[in-house]
Amino acid sequence: MNAHDPLETLFDVQQGANIPLPPALASRYGRLAFPTRAGRPCVIGNFVTTLDGVVSLNVPGQSGGGPISGFNPHDRMLMGLLRAVADAVIVGAGTLRAVSRHLWTAAYIYPSLTDSYNELRAALGKTSPPLNVIVTASGMIDLNLRVFQSGEVPVLIVTTSEGARHLRAHELPRWVHVEAVREAGAISAGQVLEAVSAARQSDILLVEGGPQLIGDFFAERCLDELFLTLAPQVAGRDGSSERPGLVAGKQFAPEHAMWGTLVSVKRAESHLFLRYAFGDDAEERMRNHNL
Q1: Cα–Cα distance between 204 and 82 in angstroms, integer?
Q2: pTM of whole model > 0.85?
Protein backbone atom coordinates (compact mmCIF):
# COMPACT_ATOMS: atom_id res chain seq x y z
CA MET A 1 0.00 0.00 0.00
CA ASN A 2 1.41 3.41 -0.95
CA ALA A 3 0.59 6.88 0.34
CA HIS A 4 -1.99 7.47 -2.38
CA ASP A 5 -4.11 4.45 -1.46
CA PRO A 6 -7.19 5.16 0.67
CA LEU A 7 -7.51 4.00 4.24
CA GLU A 8 -9.93 1.10 4.55
CA THR A 9 -12.83 1.98 6.86
CA LEU A 10 -13.73 -0.98 9.06
CA PHE A 11 -16.02 0.77 11.56
CA ASP A 12 -17.43 4.29 11.74
CA VAL A 13 -20.04 5.93 14.00
CA GLN A 14 -19.06 9.59 13.60
CA GLN A 15 -21.59 12.23 14.58
CA GLY A 16 -21.74 15.91 13.71
CA ALA A 17 -21.20 18.11 10.69
CA ASN A 18 -18.88 16.86 7.97
CA ILE A 19 -15.55 18.62 7.51
CA PRO A 20 -15.29 19.76 3.85
CA LEU A 21 -12.25 17.72 2.86
CA PRO A 22 -10.68 18.47 -0.53
CA PRO A 23 -10.70 15.50 -2.95
CA ALA A 24 -7.09 14.45 -2.26
CA LEU A 25 -7.82 14.19 1.47
CA ALA A 26 -11.32 12.75 1.19
CA SER A 27 -10.07 10.00 -1.11
CA ARG A 28 -7.35 9.01 1.38
CA TYR A 29 -9.19 9.37 4.68
CA GLY A 30 -12.90 9.21 3.96
CA ARG A 31 -15.50 11.09 5.98
CA LEU A 32 -14.40 13.28 8.88
CA ALA A 33 -16.82 14.93 11.30
CA PHE A 34 -16.66 16.36 14.80
CA PRO A 35 -19.55 16.84 17.24
CA THR A 36 -20.24 20.46 18.13
CA ARG A 37 -19.46 21.78 21.60
CA ALA A 38 -21.62 24.47 23.16
CA GLY A 39 -19.47 27.44 24.01
CA ARG A 40 -16.11 25.65 23.94
CA PRO A 41 -13.73 24.02 21.48
CA CYS A 42 -13.51 20.31 20.79
CA VAL A 43 -10.25 18.96 22.27
CA ILE A 44 -8.65 16.01 20.49
CA GLY A 45 -5.43 14.08 20.98
CA ASN A 46 -3.27 12.31 18.43
CA PHE A 47 -0.69 9.63 19.28
CA VAL A 48 0.99 6.61 17.72
CA THR A 49 1.91 3.56 19.79
CA THR A 50 3.51 0.17 19.30
CA LEU A 51 1.66 -3.07 20.01
CA ASP A 52 3.25 -3.13 23.47
CA GLY A 53 2.20 0.43 24.25
CA VAL A 54 5.44 2.36 23.65
CA VAL A 55 4.98 5.92 22.36
CA SER A 56 8.64 6.95 22.38
CA LEU A 57 11.84 4.91 22.04
CA ASN A 58 13.55 7.55 24.20
CA VAL A 59 16.72 7.31 22.11
CA PRO A 60 18.52 10.47 20.93
CA GLY A 61 17.38 11.26 17.41
CA GLN A 62 14.63 8.63 17.58
CA SER A 63 12.34 9.93 20.31
CA GLY A 64 9.50 11.15 18.10
CA GLY A 65 6.57 9.32 16.62
CA GLY A 66 8.26 8.52 13.30
CA PRO A 67 10.26 5.51 14.55
CA ILE A 68 7.15 4.25 16.35
CA SER A 69 4.99 4.29 13.20
CA GLY A 70 7.85 3.27 10.92
CA PHE A 71 7.38 6.69 9.28
CA ASN A 72 4.12 5.36 7.94
CA PRO A 73 2.77 7.75 5.26
CA HIS A 74 -0.87 7.26 6.25
CA ASP A 75 -0.06 8.13 9.85
CA ARG A 76 1.70 11.28 8.69
CA MET A 77 -1.18 12.13 6.35
CA LEU A 78 -3.58 11.84 9.30
CA MET A 79 -1.34 13.98 11.50
CA GLY A 80 -1.41 16.62 8.80
CA LEU A 81 -5.18 16.35 8.44
CA LEU A 82 -5.75 16.90 12.17
CA ARG A 83 -3.34 19.83 12.22
CA ALA A 84 -5.11 21.29 9.20
CA VAL A 85 -8.45 21.40 11.02
CA ALA A 86 -6.97 22.54 14.34
CA ASP A 87 -6.83 26.13 15.52
CA ALA A 88 -3.97 25.30 17.88
CA VAL A 89 -1.60 22.38 18.43
CA ILE A 90 -0.51 21.86 22.04
CA VAL A 91 2.72 20.10 23.06
CA GLY A 92 4.82 19.87 26.18
CA ALA A 93 8.45 20.86 26.60
CA GLY A 94 9.55 17.22 26.44
CA THR A 95 8.00 16.81 23.00
CA LEU A 96 9.66 20.04 21.88
CA ARG A 97 13.06 18.69 22.93
CA ALA A 98 12.43 15.31 21.28
CA VAL A 99 11.70 16.86 17.86
CA SER A 100 13.54 20.14 18.16
CA ARG A 101 13.45 21.07 14.45
CA HIS A 102 9.69 20.56 14.23
CA LEU A 103 6.90 22.92 13.27
CA TRP A 104 3.41 21.83 14.29
CA THR A 105 1.75 22.41 10.93
CA ALA A 106 0.17 20.12 8.37
CA ALA A 107 2.64 21.08 5.65
CA TYR A 108 5.64 20.26 7.82
CA ILE A 109 4.58 16.68 8.54
CA TYR A 110 3.28 15.84 5.05
CA PRO A 111 4.60 18.35 2.49
CA SER A 112 3.20 16.66 -0.62
CA LEU A 113 -0.37 17.47 0.49
CA THR A 114 0.36 21.10 1.38
CA ASP A 115 -2.00 22.50 -1.24
CA SER A 116 -4.86 20.29 -0.06
CA TYR A 117 -4.24 21.15 3.58
CA ASN A 118 -4.21 24.86 2.71
CA GLU A 119 -7.42 24.44 0.72
CA LEU A 120 -9.04 22.79 3.73
CA ARG A 121 -7.98 25.54 6.11
CA ALA A 122 -9.29 28.16 3.73
CA ALA A 123 -12.64 26.35 3.49
CA LEU A 124 -12.82 26.37 7.30
CA GLY A 125 -12.03 30.09 7.45
CA LYS A 126 -8.63 29.54 9.07
CA THR A 127 -6.38 32.12 7.44
CA SER A 128 -3.17 31.47 9.39
CA PRO A 129 -1.25 28.39 10.56
CA PRO A 130 -2.37 26.75 13.79
CA LEU A 131 -1.13 28.40 16.93
CA ASN A 132 1.82 26.35 18.21
CA VAL A 133 1.41 26.08 21.98
CA ILE A 134 4.36 25.02 24.13
CA VAL A 135 3.67 24.12 27.77
CA THR A 136 6.64 24.52 30.13
CA ALA A 137 6.43 25.19 33.86
CA SER A 138 10.12 26.09 34.19
CA GLY A 139 10.51 28.10 30.99
CA MET A 140 13.78 26.22 30.38
CA ILE A 141 13.47 25.74 26.64
CA ASP A 142 15.74 26.61 23.71
CA LEU A 143 14.43 29.83 22.21
CA ASN A 144 16.77 29.47 19.22
CA LEU A 145 14.70 26.64 17.77
CA ARG A 146 12.99 27.06 14.41
CA VAL A 147 9.49 27.15 15.89
CA PHE A 148 10.40 30.33 17.79
CA GLN A 149 12.76 32.06 15.38
CA SER A 150 11.44 31.41 11.86
CA GLY A 151 8.19 33.38 12.04
CA GLU A 152 6.45 30.59 10.12
CA VAL A 153 3.92 30.00 12.91
CA PRO A 154 2.46 32.03 15.77
CA VAL A 155 3.63 30.67 19.12
CA LEU A 156 2.16 30.76 22.62
CA ILE A 157 4.31 29.62 25.53
CA VAL A 158 2.17 28.68 28.53
CA THR A 159 4.23 28.82 31.69
CA THR A 160 4.45 29.96 35.31
CA SER A 161 5.43 33.38 36.59
CA GLU A 162 8.84 31.97 37.37
CA GLY A 163 9.11 30.53 33.85
CA ALA A 164 7.93 33.80 32.30
CA ARG A 165 10.65 35.74 34.10
CA HIS A 166 13.25 33.39 32.67
CA LEU A 167 11.81 33.60 29.15
CA ARG A 168 11.40 37.38 29.14
CA ALA A 169 15.04 37.79 30.07
CA HIS A 170 15.62 36.95 26.39
CA GLU A 171 14.56 39.01 23.39
CA LEU A 172 11.48 37.30 21.98
CA PRO A 173 10.25 37.69 18.39
CA ARG A 174 6.95 39.53 18.07
CA TRP A 175 5.12 36.35 17.01
CA VAL A 176 6.07 34.57 20.26
CA HIS A 177 3.86 35.32 23.26
CA VAL A 178 4.33 34.21 26.84
CA GLU A 179 1.40 33.63 29.18
CA ALA A 180 1.95 32.93 32.89
CA VAL A 181 -1.00 31.00 34.28
CA ARG A 182 0.21 30.45 37.85
CA GLU A 183 3.07 31.54 40.13
CA ALA A 184 4.89 28.18 40.25
CA GLY A 185 4.32 24.43 40.11
CA ALA A 186 2.61 22.12 37.65
CA ILE A 187 0.36 23.65 35.00
CA SER A 188 -3.09 22.08 34.72
CA ALA A 189 -4.83 21.16 31.48
CA GLY A 190 -7.59 23.60 32.34
CA GLN A 191 -5.09 26.44 32.66
CA VAL A 192 -3.62 25.53 29.28
CA LEU A 193 -7.05 25.61 27.66
CA GLU A 194 -7.89 28.97 29.25
CA ALA A 195 -4.65 30.48 27.97
CA VAL A 196 -5.18 29.13 24.46
CA SER A 197 -8.80 30.28 24.33
CA ALA A 198 -7.74 33.77 25.40
CA ALA A 199 -5.09 33.87 22.67
CA ARG A 200 -7.16 32.52 19.79
CA GLN A 201 -10.83 31.83 19.17
CA SER A 202 -10.93 28.09 18.54
CA ASP A 203 -13.24 25.34 17.38
CA ILE A 204 -10.75 22.45 17.52
CA LEU A 205 -7.66 22.10 19.71
CA LEU A 206 -5.15 19.31 19.08
CA VAL A 207 -2.93 17.83 21.81
CA GLU A 208 0.12 15.96 20.52
CA GLY A 209 1.89 15.14 23.76
CA GLY A 210 3.78 14.03 25.45
CA PRO A 211 2.50 11.41 27.89
CA GLN A 212 2.65 13.74 30.90
CA LEU A 213 0.59 16.40 29.16
CA ILE A 214 -2.02 14.01 27.76
CA GLY A 215 -2.24 12.44 31.21
CA ASP A 216 -3.23 15.82 32.64
CA PHE A 217 -5.91 16.23 29.97
CA PHE A 218 -7.32 12.79 30.76
CA ALA A 219 -7.17 13.36 34.51
CA GLU A 220 -9.09 16.62 34.26
CA ARG A 221 -11.50 15.12 31.70
CA CYS A 222 -10.57 17.80 29.20
CA LEU A 223 -10.04 15.44 26.24
CA ASP A 224 -13.03 14.79 24.00
CA GLU A 225 -11.46 12.41 21.51
CA LEU A 226 -8.28 10.43 20.93
CA PHE A 227 -6.92 9.47 17.52
CA LEU A 228 -4.56 6.56 18.13
CA THR A 229 -2.45 4.88 15.47
CA LEU A 230 -1.51 1.31 16.39
CA ALA A 231 1.74 0.37 14.66
CA PRO A 232 2.52 -3.32 14.12
CA GLN A 233 5.86 -3.39 15.95
CA VAL A 234 6.92 -4.56 19.41
CA ALA A 235 9.50 -2.16 20.87
CA GLY A 236 10.13 -3.86 24.21
CA ARG A 237 11.46 -2.55 27.52
CA ASP A 238 14.52 -3.80 29.40
CA GLY A 239 14.69 -1.27 32.23
CA SER A 240 17.82 0.45 30.93
CA SER A 241 15.82 3.53 29.97
CA GLU A 242 12.25 4.70 30.24
CA ARG A 243 10.01 3.92 27.29
CA PRO A 244 6.78 5.71 28.14
CA GLY A 245 3.27 4.63 27.31
CA LEU A 246 0.41 6.87 26.30
CA VAL A 247 -0.02 8.35 29.80
CA ALA A 248 2.66 9.24 32.35
CA GLY A 249 2.35 10.75 35.80
CA LYS A 250 -1.26 9.68 36.36
CA GLN A 251 -2.90 6.42 37.43
CA PHE A 252 -6.59 5.83 36.74
CA ALA A 253 -7.42 2.13 37.05
CA PRO A 254 -8.79 0.37 38.95
CA GLU A 255 -10.36 3.09 41.10
CA HIS A 256 -10.94 5.64 38.32
CA ALA A 257 -10.56 3.70 35.09
CA MET A 258 -10.77 5.87 32.00
CA TRP A 259 -12.97 4.15 29.41
CA GLY A 260 -13.44 5.37 25.86
CA THR A 261 -16.06 4.64 23.22
CA LEU A 262 -14.87 3.44 19.83
CA VAL A 263 -15.82 5.88 17.08
CA SER A 264 -13.85 4.71 14.07
CA VAL A 265 -11.43 2.04 12.89
CA LYS A 266 -9.45 2.43 9.69
CA ARG A 267 -6.68 0.27 8.26
CA ALA A 268 -3.64 0.63 6.05
CA GLU A 269 -2.20 -2.86 5.67
CA SER A 270 -1.13 -3.78 9.24
CA HIS A 271 -1.45 -0.29 10.74
CA LEU A 272 -4.73 0.46 12.53
CA PHE A 273 -6.11 3.97 12.94
CA LEU A 274 -8.39 4.07 15.96
CA ARG A 275 -10.61 6.89 17.19
CA TYR A 276 -12.17 6.98 20.65
CA ALA A 277 -14.59 9.40 22.27
CA PHE A 278 -14.28 10.34 25.93
CA GLY A 279 -16.41 12.48 28.18
CA ASP A 280 -20.11 13.20 28.27
CA ASP A 281 -20.97 12.47 24.65
CA ALA A 282 -19.25 9.07 24.35
CA GLU A 283 -22.26 7.05 25.51
CA GLU A 284 -24.63 9.29 23.54
CA ARG A 285 -22.76 8.45 20.33
CA MET A 286 -23.24 4.76 20.91
CA ARG A 287 -26.92 5.20 21.80
CA ASN A 288 -27.45 7.11 18.55
CA HIS A 289 -25.57 4.45 16.62
CA ASN A 290 -27.69 1.65 18.10
CA LEU A 291 -31.04 3.31 17.36
Answers
A1: 9
A2: yes
